UniProtKB/TrEMBL annotation:
Domain Farnesoic acid O-methyl transferase: 11-138
Protein name in the entry: Farnesoic acid O-methyl transferase domain-containing protein
InterPro entries the UniProt entry points to: DM9_repeat, Methyltransf_FA
Gene source species: Rhynchophorus ferrugineus (Red palm weevil)
Cross-referenced Pfam families: DM9, Methyltransf_FA
Domain of life, per lineage: Eukaryota
Amino acid sequence: MSNIELFTEDKLEYSFFPNSSGCVQFRIKAPHDAHIALSPEAAEVDPMYEIFIGGWGNSKSIIRKNRTKPDVAETPTPNILSADEFRGFWIRWSNGTITVGREGDVTPFLSWSDRENVRIEYIGICTGWGATGNWIVQPATSGPGGACGAQCWVAASSGEVPPSGFAGGEDNGESAYVIRANFNGALLPGKLVPSHRQAYVPWGGAENPVTEYEVLCDFPGQWLANSGSDIPPNAVPGGQSEDGEALYIGRTVHDGCLTIGKVQPSHGVLYIPYGGQELAFPDYEILCS
């Protein structure tokens, strides 16, 4: 299924789409006030939830139930939206708990649990209060590798490969696996070569060995040819830089090896750990759901 691309006017009128998957992932370019409704019907009804991202002049985000104040949850989010670039987000709902996070972040910045446990069948999007918006909404999917970055990452160490580890590369005839690891304040995608008894991540111009890491498992994704900083909407977030920038999972052939590394959009390249170095490539394959 294709992504839904939509322009919303300054009208505070929701456009609804079916989605009972438990999550939605989207990108939005708007100066403020990106509004998302979670509803049992394709209309504004009671009960219903609303999430306002970048409300009140792009200063805070909230969760509201039944269009009624006071809001059930809120948090300061200064400048979370941009009128000049797309910003990515995910929303999950399960057993009455709603969580909202930035694309590439594992931890939500907004959450709330409701005892009523409303069954969500539709999502709605709109902008208002002086804002218009351009949206890219992923189609509703579920399970590992579906929307919202619902990948399965399994902790391992010292060359271990969990069952159903996702092999995305090759190193001198040996399968290399997609991993991520914490390193110098960042969460970095990289490669695991089991016979080396360690994984590697690219950072600071070097190929950095790590003995503890997480392996991507049970993932039915696909690799797409890509270049530069134009990231596909369904690209899989694999971590974040020490500055909070979302990083993606990429690979390229170098010196006869298919090597996995990190795609850093602000740099417009894929970085791979290889031969003790961090090497940059403007053309690469990127992992997508």
